[in-house]
Design a protein that fits this description.
With 79 residues, the protein is of the alpha+beta class. Helix content is 30%, strand content 32%. The protein has a four-stranded mixed β-sheet with strand order 1-2-4-3, covered by helices on one side. Helix 1 runs parallel beside helix 2. The longest helix has 12 residues.
């Protein structure tokens, strides 16, 4: 079981269209140290599917995805 900790950074990308939301996420992950956690808040639908899929495709780990009334929170661990 994963013990949740505070992410190093949270990015609110609600309203940001695909693929720009992934581009912004990827650029931020490139600046972070391995093992750091990034929380990204995106809109439901394509962004909520594409951002985690793209992150995993780049080798990062999805810690948890949480759907809230405000948006979908994706917690990514940089690998």
């Amino acid at each position: 079981m994963t013990t949740l900790r505070t992410p190093a950074l949270t990015m609110d990308l609600r309203g940001t269209p695909c693929p720009l939301n992934w581009v912004k996420t990827k650029l931020r992950l490139e600046e972070m140290a391995p093992g750091a956690w990034l929380e990204v808040v995106v809109d439901d639908g394509n962004p909520a599917r594409n951002v985690p899929r793209s992150a995993e495709g780049e080798g990062h780990r999805i810690v948890v995805i949480t759907v809230t009334p405000e948006g979908v929170r994706v917690l990514i661990e940089k690998v």
